[in-house]
Structure formats: C-alpha cells, structure tokens
Amino acid sequence: xxxxxxxxxxxxxxxxxxxxxxxxxxxxxxxxxxxxxxxxxxxxxxxxxxxxxxxxxxxxxxxxxxxxxxxxxxxxxxxxxxxxxxxxxxxxxxxxxxxxxxxxxxxxxxxxxxxxxxxxxxxxxxxxxxxxxxxxxxxxxxxxxxxxxxxxxxxxxxxxxxxxxxxxxxxxxxxxxxxxxxxxxxxxxxxxxxxxxxxxxxxxxxxxxxxxxxxxxxxxxxxxxxxxxxxxxxxxxxxxxxxxxxxxxxxxxxxxxxxxxxxxxxxxxxxxxxxxxxxxxxxxxxxxxxxxxxxxxxxxxxxxxxxxxxxxxxxxxxxxxxxxxxxxxxxxxxxxxxxxxxxxxxxxxxxxxxxxxxxxxxxxxxxxxxxx
Length: 372
Description:
Elements: H1 22-32, H2 44-52, H3 55-67, H4 69-72, H5 81-90, H6 93-106, H7 123-126, H8 130-141, H9 148-158, H10 161-199, H11 208-216, H12 224-229, H13 231-236, E1 239-245, E2 252-257, E3 260-266, H14 278-289, H15 295-307, E4 310-311, H16 312-319, H17 323-335, E5 339-344, E6 347-352, H18 354-369
Parallel strand pairs: 1-3
Antiparallel strand pairs: 2-3, 4-6, 5-6
C-alpha cells in the first residue's frame, strides 16, 4: 500500500501546532554543526561556528551529537535549554547508556534485522570490542551512515557510563555558553513570530500530509523523507508538532519522542501572510538563492529546463560527474524546491519547479523593491 494512505487522517491539534520548543530547537541547531557540511541554504551561523571551533572541538562535538544522539535527545516538551542541561546533570550515568542501546535495539535502516525480532540484542557480545560495536551499528544503519572513527571512540565511553556522562554534559554546557546561548537569544523573537503566524491558520480541513506541505513548503510527492522514510512514524504518531528553526534553511528533519512526531523546518511565514518580518524574509531568500550560487547546480537546472524532464543517469552522462556527486546536487536542488522528483520506471526523474522559481523571484522583488 502506498504510504499516502495516511493522508486520510486529519491533523490532531491539541495545543499549538507550531511551537518553538526551546530545548529541541536549540538541540536541532547544535546538531547542524555536525552535519550539513556541504548543504546550500544552511544559515551562516552554522558555518561560522564550525570554523571558530578547533579540529579537536569539532570532533568532540560530532562524537557527542552523533555518537550519543539518543542519549542526549531532549525528552521534556516545552523545556528551556537551561532546564534541559539541568536534567542532563541529574541523569544517572547508566541511563545515558541505556537510552542509547535501547534506541539502537529498535532501529534498523538496512533491512538486516534478525529474523526473530523479539529476541533481545546480545549486548554482552556487541560490547566485547570496538570492532563488534561498529559492525553492529553498520548492520543497523549501513556503512554510509556509520562513522567508524566517531563510533570507535564512542565505544570507549559506552563501556564507561561515568565518563560518558561527564563527556556529554561538559561538552553541551560548554557549547551552550560559548556559541549557542547568544544565538538563541537573537533568533527566538523571530521564531515566535513565525510560530504565531502559522498558529493563526485554520488547519481543520487539512489532512496530515496537506498540513505538512503547507507548513514546511515541501512538495510531498517529491520529498523522500515524507514519502518513505517517515511514513510509518507519521501514520502512528498521536500528535504532530512543527518546530521553526533559524538555521536549517530549506531542509527538514524529524524527531519522534514518545507519541509525538516533531518536524523541524526553516522558520518562515505562511504563504500569503500579511505579516512582514524582514529577518525571516531575508533568511528565506538566502536559503533559496544559495542553491543557485554554484555553477554545477545552475547547469543541472538549465539542462532540465531545456529537456523538460531528465533522469539522474542522463544528467550524470551530460555533466560528466560521478553518481554520488550528481545525487548530492540533485538532492540539494530538490530540497530547495527548484527541482521536483518522481519515479519513472523505477528510476528517479526530475522536472523544473517553475512555480518555485517564480515565487523566489517574487520574494526577492518584494524584499528589495516593495517599500510601500
């Protein structure tokens, strides 16, 4: 059955649909430092912060946010980042490891889950050595998503929960004090304006997927995360909450915490809104046009425009780049909305999103020329 069967379910709105969620929001920005190293549209704060950190600090940050992601994911809705830090400090060392291993036991992105899924993971065997630990993660997440250097180092802390707690609490408090606290103070007012504007919309007649498309601005039919990766979670979640983030740009990511599915999206105003927030307008324009500030991406857009529709293999043959490179460029252009993706006889095909281009040009014109 196609995953869009879940479109029939109406969005359940208990409180505000769009919330700033301080702890989760700031955590999402912190995570971007470890990811998105070559993604157009990510806010310059991410790049500048990464450059200000030493190589050792960047590695430690990646170790904490990627290697122990499930140990430190905020769990309390609406919590401030300071309250989140205090909660981490009060958490017993063993719980950090338990959260991590329990999450890993439930996740399998490779299809290599043991035949007897009810059989518990033999953690004694997995934790016998760093090699066993890394191989277990590869079996669950795949080679591409498993950073051997990070996870090999992480193993040393997994087998020493006291050291694990000291590492994560110390680093997160350090990062908050030196980089994140001032930035959060700066961006919070505009995030509140974004949330307020979206919460004035009546979503009563929208399906869950229509609501996602409206809030995130994503074409649900060409967004792989919505169509396949998150399909089950979106269907099963009791509540859907959107978090406007100041740094994620044109991308979306999600966290599932208890029975709530949180979707982070680049903070902006609803389409057609009469409210004007110059900083939000500027950030949205930058996140869009940064995708065009690259000769190869422009060349791909021109090729697709001239041919009407092209498959990834055809694009690869014309511009003479490797399959991974072309896939990365196409993912970026799809994320920013300039290309729309569909399946054609099992292969990915792309067409130009003329509406997105027109709206981008209109946004630039309105920002620079409409001062009445």
